[in-house]
């Protein structure tokens, strides 16, 4: 079984748009935007691919940080950015199609930002 | 300027097996804008990874979707195995390949039936689903499950298929291939199919690529991209060429799926021919510490399972990017400029799986 090389490039918010533009100009397609909660920080990964060359721009941001939308470069980023907001509570400014928090409807607001270290905060039924 | 009206399409609609809502902005009968809205069946399955130990989470991953269940399971275990550096036995990799292709055929035949149904071609719907039964019977006979197979585990697979059964499967597929050829004649040449699908929902190759289209949706627009070419499971030892059409319309997307049935049969035959003897699993010790994006080709296109572990038995994160989610922007663009009556056909042409998209 073959495994692929996956490059992770640490990025800062001011350089995000330029880095995404460069990848777009180099012919990369947007594969996914993924968010992971790491304690009090959020890890936001912008993944791209070109001919099975997979690379990821990684941001580490504290709660309350607003991110610029990349839909001006990759219009198809709008579902990911709306998802990031609805599940994690991360504000993304300038999304091409902004659902204003109604894209994914959940009983608990921003469920993936809940700290599951505290059982009383956990809405999961399988405690 | 014609007056604009907004018509809600879904979440309940006869052509939609699962709920998705579209706000269709119309000028007369022409769609000028389509705004999708999901969230009706969000189950929080990714969140559940915090509550389940990583080996048992395979069962959750398989339940993300009732159609491409097997490939969700196999891609999740592929991610864990990569992080943990597990060498999966060759025979298990071949078995995963065989079951993946059975899943693809099952899904494509299901879609061909639903597509025919959306065109009002009921007989073709029934014929497609009749052939699908053969695939489901083999899946049940070899894994024990028609819908959720439960055959994958970290380090290998749970069940083996003996050589007699493998030969029977190939014999059965040869008979099925003849019937698929007859079925495809209708999808390729019938005047009512051509009338309802040709030139409809056209997205050219460049636009489809920029929109991040994957799977038959992208290949119908000429993008020769198929995650199986990454060589996961046993695909690095199988020869195949992705099916690509250049029309970029609903017809091209239909033809890609119909032709891929033959590719799947060919892959299964090669896999049965090459499958080695040996164990089907290895003992797994330790816990995942690291991260990985595992990619695989589902019937609807490239799926990605991202996992991040911290050396405990509970993963920090499991994130799934499903093909339907990636194809939503493509759908929005494809609907622009179409007639209201064609909306159901175009929506179905991306083979939307909302259960997958929402997780």
Radius of gyration over C-alpha positions of chain A, nearest whole angstrom: 16 Å
Strand content of chain B: 5-15%
Q: Report the uncertain regions of chain A.
A: none
Describe the largest sheet of chain B.
Answer: 3 strands, antiparallel
| Shape annotation of chain B | globular
Strand order of the largest sheet of chain B: 1-2-3
Summing up helix and strand content along with how strands pair, one would put the structural category of chain A as: alpha/beta
Terminal residue distance of chain A: 37 Å
Give the mean pLDDT of chain B: 89
Radius of gyration of chain B: 20 Å
**DSSP summary, beta strand count of chain A:** 6
What's the number of helices of chain B?
12
How many β-strand runs of chain B? 8
Structural class of the secondary elements of chain B? alpha+beta
Proportion of residues in helical segments of chain A? 10-25%
Number of helices of chain A: 2
For the structure shown, list the relevant keywords.
heterodimer; A: 127 residues; alpha/beta; 4-stranded mixed β-sheet; two-stranded parallel ribbon; 2 helices; B: 359 residues; 3-stranded antiparallel β-sheet; 12 helices; 8 strands; 47% helix
Structural notes for this entry:
The complex is a heterodimer of chains A (127) and B (359). By secondary structure, chain A is α/β, with parallel strands linked by helices. Chain A has two helices and six strands; from the N terminus they run E-H-E-E-E-E-H-E. In chain A, the strands form two sheets. Chain A has a four-stranded mixed sheet, covered by helices on one side. In chain A, a hairpin with a 2-residue loop joins strand 2 (29-38) and strand 3. Chain A is globular and about 40 Å long. Chain B is of the alpha+beta class and 359 residues long. Chain B is built from twelve helices and eight strands. Chain B has helices spanning 57-62, 69-84, 90-118, 122-143, 163-189, 191-197, 205-210, 215-219, 250-274, 323-335, 343-349, 354-358, and strands at 4-9, 21-27, 30-37, 152-153, 156-157, 289-298, 301-310, 317-321. A three-stranded antiparallel sheet of chain B has the order 1-2-3. In chain B, strand 7 and strand 8 form a beta hairpin. The longest helix of chain B is centred in the first third of the chain and has 29 residues, at 90-118. Classes of the chains: A alpha/beta (127), B alpha+beta (359). At the A-B interface, strand 2 and helix 2 of A face strand 6, strand 7, strand 8 and helix 10 of B.
């Amino acid at each position: 079984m073959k495994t692929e090389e996956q490059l992770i490039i640490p990025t800062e918010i001011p350089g995000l748009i330029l880095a995404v533009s460069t990848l777009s100009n180099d012919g990369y397609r947007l594969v996914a935007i993924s968010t992971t909660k790491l304690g009090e920080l959020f890890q936001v990964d912008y993944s791209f691919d070109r001919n099975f060359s997979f690379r990821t721009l990684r941001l580490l941001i504290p709660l309350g940080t607003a991110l610029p939308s990349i839909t001006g470069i990759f219009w198809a980023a709008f579902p990911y950015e709306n998802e990031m907001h609805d599940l994690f509570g991360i504000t993304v400014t300038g999304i091409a199609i902004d659902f204003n928090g109604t894209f994914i409807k959940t009983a608990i607001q921003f469920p993936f930002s809940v700290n599951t270290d505290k059982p009383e905060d956990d809405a999961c039924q399988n405690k | 300027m014609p007056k604009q009206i907004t018509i809600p399409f879904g979440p309940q609609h006869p052509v939609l097996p699962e709920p998705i809502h579209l706000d269709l902005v119309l000028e007369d009968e022409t769609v000028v804008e389509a705004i999708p809205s999901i969230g009706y069946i969000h189950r929080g399955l990714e969140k559940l990874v915090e509550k389940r130990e990583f080996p048992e989470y395979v069962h959750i991953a398989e339940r993300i979707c009732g159609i491409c269940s097997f490939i969700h399971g196999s891609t999740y275990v592929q991610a864990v195995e990569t992080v943990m550096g597990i060498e999966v036995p060759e025979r298990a990799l071949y078995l995963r390949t065989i079951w993946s292709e059975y899943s693809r055929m099952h899904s494509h035949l299901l879609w061909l039936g639903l597509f025919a149904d959306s065109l009002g071609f009921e007989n073709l719907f029934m014929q497609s689903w009749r052939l699908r039964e053969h695939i489901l019977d083999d899946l049940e006979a070899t894994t024990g499950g028609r819908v959720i197979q439960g055959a994958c585990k970290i380090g290998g697979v749970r069940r083996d298929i003996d050589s007699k059964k493998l030969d029977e499967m190939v014999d059965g597929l040869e008979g099925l291939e003849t019937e698929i050829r007859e079925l495809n004649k209708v999808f390729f040449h019938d005047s009512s199919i051509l009338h309802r699908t040709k030139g409809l929902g056209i997205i050219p190759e460049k636009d489809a690529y920029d929109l991040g289209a994957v799977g038959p949706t992208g290949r119908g627009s000429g993008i020769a991209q198929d995650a199986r070419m990454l060589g996961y499971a046993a695909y690095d030892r199988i020869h195949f060429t992705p099916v690509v059409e250049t029309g970029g319309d609903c017809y091209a997307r239909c033809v890609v799926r119909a032709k891929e049935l033959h590719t799947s049969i060919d892959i299964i035959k090669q896999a049965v021919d090459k499958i080695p003897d040996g164990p089907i699993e290895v003992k797994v010790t330790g816990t995942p510490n690291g991260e990985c994006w595992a990619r695989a080709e589902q019937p609807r296109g490239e799926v990605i399972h991202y996992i991040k572990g911290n050396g405990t038995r509970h993963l920090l994160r499991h994130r799934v990017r499903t093909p339907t989610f990636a194809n939503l922007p493509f759908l929005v663009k494809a609907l622009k400029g179409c007639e209201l009556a064609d909306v159901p056909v175009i929506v179905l042409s991306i083979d939307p799986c909302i259960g997958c998209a929402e997780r």
